[in-house]
Fold:
Amino acid sequence: VICKFFMPTKVFLGKDCIIDNAAQLQALGKKAFVVTGRSSAKANGSLASVEAALRASKIAYSVFDRILSNPSIELVREAAKVAKEEGADFIIGIGGGSPMDAAKAIAVLAANEIDDTVLFSGPYPQPVLPIVAVPTTAGTGSEVTQYSILSDDRLQTKSSIANEAIFPQIAFLDASYTQHLPVHVTINTAIDALSHAIEGYLSAKATNISSMLAAESMTMLGKCVKVLAGKVDFAVREQLLYASMLAGMVIAHTGTTALHSMGYSLTYFKDIDHGRANGLLMYQYLEFISMEHPSIVAKIVSLLGMENLGELKNCLDRLLGDKELISASEIQQFSAKAIQAKNIVNTIRRPSQEDLAGIIERSFCG
Ligand code: NAP
Ligand code: ZN
Structure:
């Protein structure tokens, strides 16, 4: 075998795909536990669509609407306790990456009495509850990945579960719910998808299939990012959601790389949104890779429909606006954390901690 491809999620795409395929839920159980953030799922219609589909399929349900961004291990444990008390047969995560990732961890913990070490390493003694994902941001691709990223206060970073048992069984992608995303969430999540496609293309684990998906995703995202600062019409919303799903399929095979490792520290310690954190570091990361692998970076630039890396830099600078301030001691602390991350080994030009410190410094102080 020279390449493995595994993507067990049944994906439905398009307007009204939830209600049109409500019968798909019947095989998953009689009681659903619906997991959302505090308010967006109620405001954008996604929760109402899921509730209508559950009613149409005569499935009982309860809603847990307290997932915060970058959910912690404690929060998913608390939600899993409720899911267990409710007797849930399956879990539906609606929202951005935070509620979808929380839903995955809840599906593990509602069926398994395990400590944090086993939660992150597996294997799990009992089968994980089936998971349904409804993305309402176009960025993480979590609807088609085996990852759940949780804030880990013991390790002071974001830690990931990577386990095939948490691939969603079903993903419903309806861009209608993303239509009123705030501008900054649209931008940050699109950049997250872009970083998945780019990092997947540059990963030591890239395969022919993952690179084909990454290339398609970059081609679409390259066009989309040029129009993100203005009003984003529905056709572009659909492309963003589709491209972010493709990029999710990419990282499901390739993992992320040093760019995400560094980004996790910016999110954990400075509360910078996940996609924005990647975007702030992206240009300098590509410069670093380009020094050893110029042709592959040139290929990325051309797939994005851009003239050179400088054009990508200008585009990112425009979208991201003023940068946060960062101190010399923070740069040391973040690079020390990042170099220990699991995904460092996927980086085709293996960085030292000094290399990472240099990328962070040039990104913020350049
Ligand atoms: P998010 O934290 O899920 O959501 C960000 C904000 O957007 C929240 O305030 C949310 O409000 C709001 N929001 C969501 N959908 C909306 C909509 N349709 N309209 C208006 N507002 C909406 O952000 P995210 O960037 O999607 O996810 C980030 C998380 O995903 C991070 O923890 C990251 O590490 C993880 N991630 C996971 C993977 C993976 O493969 N599993 C990959 C990349 C990133 P509410 O709170 O009210 O819902
Ligand atoms: Zn990401």
The CA atoms of residues 122 and 153 lie 20 Å apart.
